[in-house]
């Protein structure tokens, strides 16, 4: 988990200066997006959060931040809108945001029952990034709880490569974002596969990973923020807005 130590101004400035100097010395083939450079220059929040999660390891922070800027440019993160992602995946309720956990953090819901290996992983990840970026704009890089709703899912829905890709994205691109990773109503059939998933989770993720059922979900999400299918009071049906 992130350290209790807060980075000092000198550390934040060192990381920022390093990135800006590297930009001058070895400009990337594709220039970084103006929005990302603005976020880097005009605010300490991004660097602060990275330094906290990397326990004030300045060298790691410099490398990861540069890699993140490269990825954001190549993936076209700043240009993703509701108009240019896969419309089916955006509107079918397989990935969406609704309600909050007990800490007041938004729930990013992955409806695993709707998944299959035939779905386009890149398109799904673009929808995922669309929601994460939308939340970050609204909450200023605040934390998110990833809610993997396994209700009614079976072996045909389990796609280890897709789950790996999601975990990898949060580990390297948004490492400061996860509050909890909740795996809800894991079917007995998928227990063995889930052990494999746990095997490639980083240590930080294992600490915030919780497997929940209808009986104990309220430890993390209260009844009014739980959908009825999870054992709660909320009768919400997803509709994209």
From TrEMBL:
Where the record annotates domain CRAL-TRIO, the positions are: 82-238
Q: Which GO terms describe its cellular component?
A: endomembrane system; endoplasmic reticulum-endosome membrane contact site
Which Pfam families would you find in this protein's record? CRAL_TRIO
Protein name, UniProt field: Motile sperm domain-containing protein 2
Q: Which gene encodes it?
A: LOC108084393
